């Protein structure tokens, strides 16, 4: 890892720590915002969908433009736009203005993703998997801290808007910091020589590469599966982040503060997972295997959450769900870049466009389910989506074993060459 990239990377990770708060801000203030904006839970879900809408229709083009004009302009603009959203929502005089701000926040989200992930891969080409997974870790830190901050403000009768204003201020200051930083060269390439096994001869490497040419990645097979995984993973994440407190209150009988703490447990599990992934990805396991193992774990945890109706089961299941969802989306992007040596911004655009569809559709659909059914139906949907993700991951692993045989001595990071 290049030490000269640490100052830029620190600013990028701070953005995602704040994004962890930003991402659950509306769900965590459900009761306050329904009263302030004169709406209901379905209305707040619509705001979340508006964010997904803004993200959906700008993410791919922002990825292409990020490849052309650089990462910095989009990352700086994202921080400033998110600050505008966070200041504007508590002060919004109407639901309609809040909708406009939500769309703007979605645009900011697309700018942030299309700039940050390529920048991290360029900053740490030999450790790109770990660098992108750490994003999930910082998101988890922010998401775990926000409910505690909200509970503190509630207990001290402080205006709820301050939990919006504080991250907005830091977003703005960090945007100024990153504007002054020098970003890594966009033309950086991953190393061409073996990383883990230096005993492999050049002749053996050449034979293996030629054998690999006989089985090429197919976009309409594993590529499409990975894009759909870019939908299923965030769907599970959004269902939990948006509805876990409601599930705790309505299905288990928790108080509001107890249900908010479920998000803390969820994010603690997520944070633990990130540290585990950073270790195991370096030596023992490949990203493509994680995107199959983790959904299998989360399926069991969602089942336990629905089956065992108790406080203890909810806490344990929330931790395990956080652990098993964390990093899957980022590793899906890493696996996509292993299969297809395309431009990093465009690859990010493919995966995160599918993610944006999830962000747009799922809040509205789950809000509809909750309006006409019970909260348990929302988590039954999570079970179904989880099973679909497992099926897709099985196929991707099969194709990976065909294209990159397990006997290969070359590091899989060679395939991360973006050019």
From TrEMBL:
GO cellular component: plasma membrane
UniProt keyword list: Membrane, Transmembrane, Transmembrane helix, Transport
Primary site of residence: membrane
Subcellular location: Cell membrane
Source species: Paenibacillus terrae
Chain ranges passing through the membrane: 12-32, 44-62, 74-91, 97-121, 133-153, 159-179, 224-244, 264-281, 288-308, 314-335, 347-369, 375-398
UniProt-recorded Gene Ontology molecular function terms: transmembrane transporter activity
Name listed for the protein in its UniProt record: MFS transporter
Annotated membrane topology: Multi-pass membrane protein
Family: Belongs to the major facilitator superfamily.
